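Why do we bother with a discrete structure alphabet at all? Because it lets us treat a fold like text: something you can write down, compare, and reason about line by line. To make this less abstract, here is a complete entry for Luciferase-like domain-containing protein. Read it the way you would read a sentence in a foreign language you are learning: slowly, and without expecting to understand everything at once.
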Amino acid sequence: MVAEVGRIGLWATERQWPKDVPARAEIAAEVEALGVPTVWIGAASGDLELAAAILDNTDRLVVGTSILNIWTEPADVVADHYAMLAKAHPDRILLGLGAGHKELVEKRIDRRYERPVDVLVDYLDTLDELGVPRAGRALAALGPRVLGIAAQRTAGALPYLTTPEHTRRARELLGPDALLAPEQMVILDTDPAQARAVAHDTLAFYLKLPNYVNNLRRLGFTEDDLTGAGSQRLVDAVVAWGDVDSVLARVAEHHEAGADHVAIQVLTSTPTRLPREQWARLAPVIVG
């Protein structure tokens, strides 16, 4: 059984969470009290320590990893920790897996980043052997080939840095039954200059990574859109900014295009901190 992730969840990187276990427990309880159904851990570690802290200190909150990097997080370690958490907290953990990016991976591993799709398939084979169920995992899929693997070998897909048009195309490729849970960057700021400045600062990092750039090209963005920190056209297409209603309107576009769930990543001018105040502002929308 696939975890019940709800219609909307909250996404933040593992680095944004405090390292102190009591502080993690306090925040997890706070998020659950807001009524949020799911939290996603970006750049998660394979020991699932943060996931465990969240699950152990809540009763209903679902935790998804978005993502565990298949090059740096050994499948046997992931499977062992998944098994423990799935036993202790049935139907509340979903492993999001992905091949990451050559430019980042080769700095951390002593091997060439070659044939990532083959490595991904081998990783899924190992998880099969170790008893991780198909319903307990999903893939960070962007292009048609990996979306196909997601539909065949996992619960579904977790696209990142995309648009509602990508969601529409992904649904067509996945079919009607697979989970489709795109991430959506948002900025709760109604000042256009301020909001776009934060968005440009964020996109400057991602536009150095060919996986994302190539996917955005498939969606019709030009070299002018994808240069440096991105064009205003690109910013407005991939980042929803404004008041809560404006953000909700973009989320609704993903749902209308075929998304089952949308993972909201709140961007701020202090990206290393959890946006707890903004989460509290969004919670009524998520719950409602």
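What the structure line is telling us, in plain words: The two ends are 25 Å apart (CA to CA). The mean pLDDT is 96.
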